[in-house]
């Protein structure tokens, strides 16, 4: 997969962020940095992309983003509650106006009752507001990860225009 596949969405995001003078940060679990790679593949992204955190393990979610371990224990790492906490934790730690977090099950293993492969939560936060969206994606691991990045970029563009 070439990162250029995401370029039109990244350019739309860049335009929206530059218009507001905003910078973003992202916290990624199941995408493992693919969103950050897509953003930083575009020249000039240092104007608006501040940082990316690959918080793949529960310990990383807790240590790097401040997600309470009790929240993970209660709802699971792939949950709306944890996605929101990841986005809000990053917003509290990064000098940015907008954050996005991704947590999901890309497969082929990892499914649990009620959370099949392809279950992904994305959440985005700006000061005073956090939103989340559940995705139920199909395909193999690569397809789930790519579709997650597509959804994340669309959410970021919409949030930057809100």
Summarize this structure briefly.
This protein has 162 residues and is α/β, with parallel strands linked by helices.
Structural class: alpha/beta
CATH topology: Maf protein
Low-confidence stretches: none
User: How many H/I helices?
Assistant: 6
Sequence of secondary-structure elements: HEHEHHHEEEH
Report Rg.
14 Å
Count of domains: 1
Termini separation comes to: 31 Å
What is the fourth-level CATH superfamily?
CinA-like
- Tell me the name of the CATH class: Alpha Beta
* CATH architecture title: Alpha-Beta Complex
Would you tell me the overall average pLDDT? 97
Global outline: globular
State the helicity in percent bands: 40-55%
Task: Tell me the strand percentage band.
Answer: 15-25%
Number of strands: 5
What does the secondary structure layout of this molecule look like, with pairings?
Elements: H1 7-20, E1 24-28, H2 34-40, E2 49-54, H3 58-65, H4 69-75, H5 80-93, E3 98-104, E4 119-126, E5 129-136, H6 141-161
Parallel strand pairs: 1-2, 1-3
Antiparallel strand pairs: 3-4, 4-5
Folded structure, characterized:
This protein has 162 residues and is α/β, with parallel strands linked by helices. The chain has a single domain (8-161), classed as CinA-like (Maf protein, Alpha-Beta Complex), CATH 3.90.950. 44% of the residues lie in helices and 21% in strands. The protein contains six helices and five strands. The protein has helices spanning 7-20, 34-40, 58-65, 69-75, 80-93, 141-161; strands spanning 24-28, 49-54, 98-104, 119-126, 129-136. Strand 1, helix 2 (34-40) and strand 2 (49-54) form a beta-alpha-beta unit. The longest helix has 21 residues, at 141-161. The protein is globular and about 45 Å long. The N and C termini lie far apart (31 Å).
């Amino acid at each position: 997969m070439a990162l250029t596949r995401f370029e039109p969405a990244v350019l739309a995001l860049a335009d929206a962020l530059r218009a507001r003078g905003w910078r973003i940060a992202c916290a990624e679990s199941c995408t493992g940095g693919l969103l950050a790679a897509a953003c930083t593949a575009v020249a000039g992204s240092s104007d608006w992309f501040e940082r990316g955190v690959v918080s793949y393990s529960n310990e990383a979610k807790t240590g790097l983003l401040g997600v309470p371990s009790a929240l993970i224990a209660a709802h699971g790492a792939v949950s709306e509650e944890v996605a929101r906490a990841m986005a809000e934790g990053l917003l509290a730690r990064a000098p940015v106006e907008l954050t996005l977090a991704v947590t999901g099950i890309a497969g082929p293993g990892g499914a649990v009752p009620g959370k099949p492969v392809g279950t992904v939560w994305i959440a985005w936060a700006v000061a005073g507001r956090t939103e989340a969206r559940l995705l139920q994606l199909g395909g193999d691991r690569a397809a789930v990860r790519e579709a997650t990045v597509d959804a994340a970029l669309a959410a970021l563009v919409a949030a930057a225009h809100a």
